[in-house]
Amino acid sequence: MNNSTIDAHIVQCTWNNTAIFGLFVFISGLLTNGTVVLALLSRHAIWSPFMVYVFNLFCANILQSFTGALLDFINSYCSVWFLGRTLCFVYNYGEWTAAILQMLCHPLIALNRITAIYAPVFYRHTHTYRNAILLCVLTWLLAHIITLPMLIINTAVDVRDVCHVDLNEPVQKWWAFVLDVVCVLCIGMVAVCFPVVYVKYRRSRLHSMRVRPIKPDNASDQSNRLDIGVIGDALSRSQMFLLLLLTISTLILWTPGNLYALLSAINLWADPAAEAIIIPLFAMQAILDPIIFILSLPPLRMTVRNFFRCNDSAHSQLKI
Question: Which of 16, 59, 132, 172 allows an S-S link to 52, with CB 3.0 to 4.6 Å?
Fold first, then answer.
C-alpha cells in the first residue's frame, strides 16, 4: 500500500478510550523506565551483574512503549493507517521484539535469583558482568529470531485499516502456536520462582531463629563468608517482596493474553472485544516494572531519589 492510495479526507482522527490509554502507556512507560535508566547510568556505585538484567528489562520496556504503545495509539486515534508499509513493518518489528524481550527478561531475573540461592558457589564464580551481558544479548537475539519469521509472513498481508500482525491468519497459525509455547514457558518460570525461593527463605529464617550466629575468627574460611553473603542478599526481605510483586503482576497481566492467544491459535475463541482488554493489560507491565523495582529495592530507590536531587553522596556502599 502506498501513501498515494489514501486520500486525506478519509483519514479521520477521533479520541476514544483506547487511544487515550495508548497515549497514557506511551508517556508513562517512557517517563518511568527512562527515569530509572538515566538514574542507573549516572550512578555507577549501584551497578552489579544483577542490575544488568534489570537494566535490560527497562530498555525492553522503553522499546515497547515507544513502538507498541505508540502504534496502538495511532491505530486507535486514526481510522486508517496512513504511514505506509515501511513504517508499519518498523513499528510491528519493534513492538513484537520488545514484547518478546519483556517475556524473556522476567524469567531471566527469576532464574538468576534461584541460582543465587540454590547454587551460591556456582553463582559466585560465574555471575560476572561479562556473563550477565552475554545472557542479555542472547535474549535480544532470541527475540529477533522469534519475531522475524512472523513479520516476514505478515508482509504478504495487505495493510488496510490498521497496522498489526494478525496471528489468526491461516499462514500464521503454526508460528502463533510456537509463540504461545514460549510465552507459557516464560510465565511458568516466573510463577515457579517465588514458591521455590520462598521455601528457601522460610528454612533460612527458621534456621536463623534456632541457631545463634557466631562471629567468625580471623582465620575462618573467606569463601564460606562470601557464600553466606550471596544467599543472604538473595533471601532478603526486599528481594522476596520484589519477587512477590513481579510474580503477581505478570500472572495477572500476562496470563489472560496468553490464554486468549492459545485458544485463538486452536480456533476455539477469537473476539476483537477481548483483544481490546488483553492488549492494555499486557502493556501495563511496562509501567509497573520500574515502580515495583523502586518500591522493593532500597538502594535503587535511593539512587532515583538522589538522581532528582543531583546528590552524589551516600553512594559508595550502594549495591544490589
Answer: 132
